[in-house]
Amino acid sequence: MSTRRARRKATTGSREPPVHRTTRASLETLRDRLLTVHQRMVEAETHVPLEGFGESRDSARNLLHYLALRGFDLREVQDQLADLGLSSLGRAEGHVLYNLETVLERLSEIGPRRAAQGYPRSDITPGRGRKLLDRNARRLLGPSPERATRIMVTLPTDAANDPEFLPDLLRAGTDVVRINCAHDSEVEWSRMAQNLRRARRQVGRACHLEMDLGGPRLRTGPLEAGPAVLRVRPARDAFGRSLGPGTLRLVPPSSPRVGFPDTLAVPGEWLRRRRARERLTLRDARGATRVLRVVSIEGDGVLVAAEKSTYLTNGVSLRGRSRQGRVDPLVLRGIAARAGRIRLSSGDWLRVTANSTPGWDRDPRRRGTRAMATIGVSHPDLLARIRIGDQIWFDGGRIGGVARRRSGSGFLVEIQHAPPEGTWLRSDQGINLPDTDLGLPSLLDEDRALLPFVVRHADLVGYSFVESADGIARLRGELVALGRPKMGIVLKIETRRAFERLPEILLGALQHGPAAVMVARGDLAVEVGFERLSEVQEEILWLSEAAHLPAIWATQVLEGLAKSGMPTRAEVTDAAMGERAECVMLNKGPYLIEAVRALDGIVRRMQAHQAKKSARLRLLHVAERFLSGASVGDPPANPVIPAGGGR
């Protein structure tokens, strides 16, 4: 044994370090594979003319580099790099070429020497990649002094009527508020914007306002309204025993609480004559004699309680007593009709028609045996595009079926996905058609009509159902014409086509920025399938970070807490995962402020544990499709994979 080899054995024992156990041939092969990937990255820059990206040129280059990287399956390569103690490229999204070149340099140092390859040194370092993403997040979503992940909240109508709602929301930790223009009207939106400006001054906290354009959302048409009845009933346990009286707030028409659940507007003069513990007698809608007891006087309103179930309808008379003992009656008016609804179960049939008049007819399969519901849609001209066999989903995927046959101006849907006991379908609920190319422009005339209002009041505009870079260019042109050329755009990725065209959309966003990306997981789950949602949302986060565009993690975050006051374990874990985005969005609910406080605490704790996360670099078909120039819907081409890469 040579003296040098004996010395090495004496100091290291019989086992050699991993680097020395790696053969020269395997190091050479590994380096060759990575050089092939590097070459593909540099070539990717020729796919798009980078001159038109302005200050976003480096971000566009980095996105192209990342798409080239993800055109390979590199999982085996990652394991080999990790065995050598090198970066596995799993956190390279924001600085991908720099990361790969650094790995190549380290391989040259520990492996067989080679002449310099002459590849260009990337100037997007890890630090610069983080700064670009942070800069864009600040521009779009505002400052975030307490945590890296902002909190966005969808505003309920309460924000227009209750001046104290928004200050409380900001104190809880809200950074961005969102108005969904598919609901309410300009009257409520103006009040919300005014209350937000007042809340910013009162609390001393920055908070941006985002307004969502409705976009080409297909919705269920009107249904025959239900009865105008308001039910006040006590809470009961599983054995039917009363747990406490039912309550109802009586408020004047000018009260900010008008429109709240369990609230009824009545004349203010009559309310001012009410006294605590007074008994209001009535004969309810069923003819039953009932008593509403005045529990308390709350400002300009009155809280009353019913020990027995009470059904109130227009024309019912409440009889109070004046201090002198005289009867003081009030005839109820203004109780709204309940929204119409259809109960559907798996196996039912539903007629979807261009005729917006709802109704019932007989099941065509078995004449005279059972009734079948009929419902219209918000864009009846689109029904001609639906093909037999296409999937159709209602209300965020709660009800699903398949178009089975044509029927007059519509078609018949066989319901295949619904709870066995049935569930209700109401009007104005979203419809998803993942198999159907609707051919709708993503910017409708109604959206253009809203834009002047949006640019006057909002910091950001939400672009619903974006599916192409051309759509982004058209919206940016509208904003330029309205005097807001640099207004931020939130790109809502909510359809299968948007996901499949994501590279094109992100490049369009960089060219026509500034922009952020919303992962609209509710619609996406329906469009791509619930079993695929986890991987799809990860890919959107990766590609957004590669473009240095802030991402918004949306839909059903802490929904149980916001709606019922009690979170589930699963949704707390889901909220913690949202820390990897630059913003997390909460939807409205009675316990919204409590949900904001909880999310603030979750995100603060999680950011001490992780920042983003490492990825396994399997091949991404969206990257492969973009680089090959294939159209959406084409089958993926066979990738060119370095030897041993696998798929």
How would you portray this structure in words?
The protein is an alpha/beta fold and 647 residues long. The protein folds into 4 domains: 3-124 and 617-628, no CATH class; 133-216 and 440-607, Phosphoenolpyruvate-binding domains (TIM Barrel), CATH 3.20.20.60; 229-331, Beta Barrel (M1 Pyruvate Kinase, Domain 3); 341-432, M1 Pyruvate Kinase, Domain 3 (Beta Barrel), CATH 2.40.33.10. The chain is 35% helix and 21% strand. A hairpin with a 4-residue loop joins β19 and β20. α3 runs antiparallel to α6. The longest helix has 21 residues, at 24-44. The radius of gyration is 30 Å and the shape is elongated. Mean pLDDT is 86; it is low at 7-20, 362-369 and 635-647.
Q: Which oligomeric form is depicted?
A: single chain
**Low-confidence residue ranges:** 7-20, 362-369, 635-647
Which outline best applies?
A: elongated
Instruction: Tell me the major beta sheet.
Output: 8 strands, parallel, barrel
